[in-house]
Amino acid sequence: MKLGRLNHVGVATPSIERSLETYKAMFGAEPAGEPFDLPAQGVRVCFVDTPNSQIELIEPLGETSPIVKFLEKNPAGGQHHVCFEVEDIAAARAHFEGKGARILGPTRIGAHGTPVFFLHPKDMGGVLTELMETPAH
Ligand SMILES: CC[C@@H](C(=O)O)C(=O)SCCNC(=O)CCNC(=O)[C@H](O)C(C)(C)COP(=O)(O)OP(=O)(O)OC[C@H]1O[C@@H](n2cnc3c(N)ncnc32)[C@H](O)[C@@H]1OP(=O)(O)O
Ligand SMILES: [Co+2]
């Protein structure tokens, strides 16, 4: 399995609007689009573009959101996950299963409209790691 492009860094926040104000004040950066809900992933999302990647701001959508506990431990928010692209998500999943890595839940459609899954941070040196299939261009 080849380590693919860093698609985004996920940043959990209690308020996407406040985080956008920070990126605007510190870097003059604007959001790549309007925030939107992803109920299947339990988050509200907004992207900020960087020249070679993206920052993915995620806010909990409901009390069962997977980022609720993280925000309880880090109330001001913080760096939550990294996401690498892979060419074939099914092959990537089989690869990591073969290594005995803990895969968190089913493969779902992510914020870019392609399938994603997550590897447990304990199997990735403490970094929650998302794999996403490269979008077709
Ligand atoms: C926008 C959609 C999509 C995209 O397309 O990009 C997304 O990115 S959605 C992002 C949100 N979704 C997810 O995070 C799904 C996968 N996550 C999970 O299944 C869970 O959040 C988790 C990682 C298993 C954590 O479980 P949780 O119940 O929330 O917390 P625990 O306290 O039980 O955590 C266990 C253990 O792991 C450590 N931990 C938790 N979160 C992180 C993290 N983000 N980075 C590093 N380490 C993390 C936590 O500290 C615990 O450690 P110990 O205390 O040492 O046991
Ligand atoms: Co993500």
Automatic annotation (TrEMBL):
Residues 5-134 form the VOC domain. The keyword Isomerase applies. This is Methylmalonyl-CoA epimerase. It comes from Sphingomonas sabuli. PANTHER family: METHYLMALONYL-COA EPIMERASE, METHYLMALONYL-COA EPIMERASE, MITOCHONDRIAL. The keyword Aminoacyl-tRNA synthetase does not apply. Keywords: Isomerase, Metal-binding. SUPFAM superfamilies: Glyoxalase/Bleomycin resistance protein/Dihydroxybiphenyl dioxygenase. Its EC number is 5.1.99.1. NCBIfam families: metmalonyl_epim (TIGR03081). It is an enzyme of class 5 (isomerase). Pfam families: Glyoxalase_4. GO terms for biological process: L-methylmalonyl-CoA metabolic process. GO terms for molecular function: metal ion binding; methylmalonyl-CoA epimerase activity. It comes from the Bacteria. Belongs to the methylmalonyl-CoA epimerase family.
